[in-house]
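Blinded run. Sample ID left blank on purpose so nobody reads anything into the name before looking at the predicted structure. Input follows.
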Amino acid sequence: MLCFSLISLILAFCSGLSNTIKGGVDLKYVIDNFSYKRDKETDCRITSLQTALKIENIDLRATDTLLFASAITFRFFNAATKQKLPVMSLIGIRPDYIERFAENSGINIKCYKGQNFDEDATIIEEAIVNNHCVIAKADRYQLKCFLQPKLVDKITDKKHMTQHYFMIYGFDTDKNQYLICEPNSAISKFHHMWVDKDEINKARKCQWLDFDIDNDIYIIEDVSGYKLINYTERLYVQLEELCKSINESIPLLKDFLEQFNNCKEDALKRYYIVLTKFLAMTMSGLDLSGYFYRRYIDTALKVTISDRKLLDMSKKNMENWHVLAKHSRKIIGIEDSYQIWHRVLQLAEAELQIWQNAINLL
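Blinded prediction complete.
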């Protein structure tokens, strides 16, 4: 028995040599059980959290993570309060999605922000050595500048997106590299790619409109407090918060449409068209899946509600957002832009009624 234990210890030690040790100094480590499967209809925040949770032996559906966080929203707001012209934006998922998920699921997720790059490297490397995947925020435009420079050269506008997430699951201090997974890419090599730390870090500090990134990272530290989801309870909270956000946004949308309709200056008209293109980007989640966060509510409703009429209304609502999202990518002029925003208002008012009816049935 002692001989067997010694042999096991030696084998375990030898298997770790290639991963961590050289000359007594940690140089390289990779999370062996990292596995990523791309879902083109699920955004980087959701897939990054799901992937990190799987490493901790917690397998949650996207719907579960969103309901835990009550993350699905309808927020119409000015994203540039410090600028002369407002940048009216519509988002469908809360920026604090991971923080709220941690709060309501019982899982301890540590959030770091503002640390210098030396401190940042230490935190990341310690997490990976302890088999915790690191979720990092980045500006997607700057990330593409580094990962796909030839593609970026063809982009005329700098389309910054500071709510982009990627994963770090390995490091090599000798080569000054991180092993990353860029979840939004359809190209598999970007799911397992060694990159220079200094280059990737350029995308991890950014100020754009009212959004900023300052070495933001999330690390799952303890899952012992994890509690199973109560679908009815979490869906009720989610729908209540969603109705509140729609109620707050509808008056702002109406004011915006009135200003839009009364616009006479050509320069301002062109600006409204730009805002509509920005809407297309945020509404579609950078792909053609439509206003896809609504499909998660549709999934949850099917589990908790049997009312066929309401389920059909929810499905139709999701299809309407899908059509609008695709149409918004094809705008030509000011009239098209106005009609798209007017349709957003109509769908918001219809959606509010659907969710209020759903709450009464829960």
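Unblinding after everyone has recorded impressions. Residues 76 and 90 are 4 Å apart (CA to CA).
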